[in-house]
Amino acid sequence: MTDATASGAAPERRHTSLMTADKGTRRRNAAEARFRAYGLAAIAVGLAALVILLVSILSQGLSSFRQAYVTLDVPLTAETLDPGGNRDPADIASVSTFGYSSIIRDAVLNTFRNAGIEIEGLSEDEARGIISPEASAQIRDRVLADPELIGQTVEIEVLANSWIDGYFKGRVTDRTAELNSNVSPAQIQLAQAMQDAGILNVHFNWAFITAPDASDNRPEAAGLGVAIIGSLYMMLIVLCLALPIGVAASIYLEEFAPQNWFTDVIEVNISNLAAVPSIVYGILGLAIFINFAGLPQSAPIVGGLVLTLMTLPTIIIATRASLKAVPPSIRDAALGIGASKMQSVFHHVLPLAMPGILTGTIIGLAQALGETAPLLLIGMVAFVRDYPAAPPDGFFDPASALPVQVYNWTQRADPAFVERASGAIIVLLVFLLIMNTLAIVLRRRFERRW
Amino acid sequence: MSLAKLTVSTLALAAVSATAVSAQGREQVQIAGSSTVLPYASIVAEAFGENFDYPTPVVESGGSSAGLKRFCEGVGENTIDIANASRAIREGEIEACAAAGVTDIMEVRIGYDGIVFASQIDGPEFTAFEPAQWYNAMAAELPMDGEMASNPNSSWSDVDGALPDVEIQAFIPGTKHGTREVFEEKVILQGCEDSGAYDQILEINGGDEDAAEDACMSIRTDGVAVDIDGDYTETLARIESNPNGIGVFGLAFYENNTDLLKVATMGGVEPSTETISSGDYPVSRPLYFYIKKAHMGVIPGLKEYAEFFVSNEVAGPNGPLSNYGLVADPELEQTQQQIADEVTMSESM
Q: For chain B, how many helices (H) and strands (E)?
């Protein structure tokens, strides 16, 4: 104040133009420009990290959606498949998949000789080796389903071995073939010749999404089917439990509960629980649901319950925030025209808060979908090949989960699983992308501004 | 208030579903344990599911000790039936089992696993090692002039002039792995005895054999030896980014990655399924799984799975397990007989 009068009283006034910036303005402008540059740099760093991540995952993983298949003329010789010659299903079933390896060998030899392919130095075992061991099971299932086929020659499309498949994807080179005992140069030549003759085709691989996991012996057959079902079951359980419990808890806390030290303690605890490391929920789940309640191990029901506990704080916090965002005038108006407290909440406040609640729920679900650590302790990080049954029985059958499958595959010795793991990450990312887009769409569609 | 309500309602839900489940009964075999045995167990489980009418067993990993701990939690449908282990069960674990009511345990040896020393295929010429060289490179302290001094060797040529002149950088299994035990006993302790260091240590500490063994097997912690707590894929990644590094791998893992790794001989013997089964290659160990006899006849397919695992067409010399890198057990027939008769550990002793 005194400064202002002092400068106002000064005989000499400084004349500055709006066009020419003085020192102070320049400094402020420079600070602003710097801050914008920092912001842009921060975004650039974030984007670069995202691009690097996506490029590395996509370049490694996209190839897992395509797979090399060989169309074989399989001679189902009666001597091998039905030694008794009586077509008794029990007798046919007694021939194990190992008994089918000679059939596969003959089938490969047949097929490429019929196509007029000659490869020098190719042994019969090497010829059989280009086919996945999965083929034995595939042909055996076909024979068991229809014993009449025995004695005939059937055309069946089977998977090529992962090393042959890797050759067409550039993972296996001639140098690999020379050095690695799992694949020989003659096999690569045979595969190339078969592709030229149209016997071997690389095409889209639905089995990667639908088939169950496979052992280290046959990475080419491994798929995400059981993991996707397991994840879906768990999300269903989380949705059905966490949404009603979470919304009920938040409505009570926000609208009905008295403000005292007890509700304060609960509020602090909920915020605290949201930050608890997820493995802690796994320990809790093991102690309560498996050891105390006697639920089965590796089952989606336990995974779903554990993830529900993990997601609840997120949902409660999001729901309370969106309830708080509804202006008090709405409540007052409802109460003013004679609505009960409950009517004002359920008829007016809750519908207005719904977009926020749904967004919070979906974000909580997405977080739960990507969680591995708590599942480790309840036995879901496992090799599971049988599809769980339809719900509700299926909730108690063993299953795997998407992030668990990624974790499992990165640990396997065969290099083909690197590609599979990246492919599984892509599928997981697509699921997350869909859920997060849904959250944004819901918010945009139903959001109300005052 | 709401938290209490929440816990009560989840518990109630859990209790209701628990009763629903106990009526059903578990149908598939549950297995957990060693990550070394996991690939073999999953190969067998897969083939078992294909060839039998029983559901495919569920196989978890987590390490031998973790598997045996869960195995010893008790008898009943919500405990595992089989524990895979890359080492024999310990006395303390048998006692823990007995305390929880798991008394009849069947031990099944499935074959042998070799442990190999491999480096980058284009890296320095690491082609032949002796246990003594590894001892001198890895030991925390070496006996020198009548007392223990911290290990001065920093390059392989310091250890032995025949080895390349590159810094020592070894990626060895971490202490939670069963492999570490084999590495310490069959390589480091052996090297300690071979080089004469063991006798010198005995002289220094006045003849205390246990202390001398411990001194032999204590690994240096100055960053030269790196513990890998993950699995072999992590060791491989470290080797790939470090041309001078040498890693410890399982034979099966090495055989799947022969285009990236080159293996060194140990004591002049090249590791292969043949040299390991003949006993010429020194660094190998038996692999086991343990079955709860009380679960046989309760869990469908348990005995069939065990019999299938050790059958000749699976675990024999040309079966899928041996193709993957397992060294077939020459005494497989005894094991088959033992499962057929359901002989437990206490009966066979």
A: 18, 12
